[in-house]
Write a structure and sequence with these properties.
By secondary structure, the chain is of the alpha+beta class. The chain contains eight helices and ten strands.
Length: 280
């Protein structure tokens, strides 16, 4: 039976998008806890698995190791990191299977499995091949066109397979996503230049403003707010959030009953929701 699975990994304390300061505090807390619990998924994570007969693919988009910490903590990008394009790479099956098996024991990862048609399988593999052919794995971040193969953040990468196969449910996408206008004063130096090949040295940060240090931003007693739409200097960000996806799965599990249009199963403490999209 053909299937597509999205895995949603939870960060240590979750990500609070209610204000710039709350977002920064979430990242700082997740960074601090990573030294204790080993969870270096500071913003959560999303991985995918496609199984279509003998064709199988399990992968995820990520940045090159150490790059996020370097840009945020050493180059003081502040919330400019949200518009930064990092040198990217695809994660492999062995690493992901090991992490999933470990995190299923404590519900740090949940999943959604979609039963899909042969046509949907073909569209998903075509999307992956196009993504790789266009150099998508070289570019990790929010400000890229994932369906065009430019690059991706981990969540957008996962969601793009449903979009490419024309299976994306608008209500699900809305539930997993959010948007903010980031004030200019919180946008430190960043680069949104695309990488053209693997192994390139990181580009210099030639966009954004002055240095924005995350920890002082968190410690200041003054409240912060997102900018108003089209406020001068502000930048718009639309995003899919792994922690939100993880929470959404838990909520759907709580609401499940025999008349629901999806099934639910457990792997240790981990939830897997099953949607039958074979006729779509």
């Amino acid at each position: 039976m053909n299937s597509f699975t999205l895995y949603a990994f939870k960060s240590s304390v979750g990500i609070n998008w209610s204000s710039p300061k709350s977002l920064a505090a979430s990242v700082v807390k997740n960074e601090a806890l990573s030294y204790i619990n080993g969870n270096d998924r500071l913003l959560g994570h999303v991985a995918i698995k496609i199984k279509c007969g003998e064709r199988e693919l399990m992968t995820a988009m990520t940045s090159r190791p150490g790059e996020t910490k370097r840009v945020v903590l050493k180059q003081h990008s502040g919330l400019g990191v949200l518009f930064h394009i990092f040198p990217g790479e695809l994660e492999g099956r062995e690493l992901l299977e090991e992490e999933i098996a470990k995190k299923r024991k404590n519900a740090r990862v949940h999943s959604m499995t979609y039963l899909i048609s042969d046509q949907a399988c073909d569209l998903m593999f075509e999307h992956y091949e196009n993504f790789v052919r266009n150099g998508g794995p070289n570019n990790y971040g929010f400000p890229v066109d994932t369906l065009a193969g430019e690059g991706a953040g981990c969540s957008a990468f996962g969601v793009s397979f449903l979009q490419a196969a024309k299976l994306a449910d608008p209500e699900q996408l809305k539930s997993w996503s959010g948007s903010v206008w980031v004030p200019e004063k919180f946008i430190g130096p960043y680069s949104d230049r695309l990488y053209t090949e693997a192994g390139q040295e990181p580009y210099a940060n030639d966009q954004g403003g002055e240095n924005v240090k995350l920890i002082p931003m968190v410690l200041k007693p003054k409240k912060t707010e997102w900018a108003k739409p089209n406020e001068p200097g502000a930048k718009f960000l639309h995003f899919y959030d792994p922690d939100t996806m993880h929470s959404w799965i838990e909520q759907q599990a709580k609401e499940w009953n025999n008349s629901a249009d999806y099934q639910m199963r457990k792997f240790n403490k981990s939830i897997d929701l099953v949607f039958d999209y074979r006729s779509r």
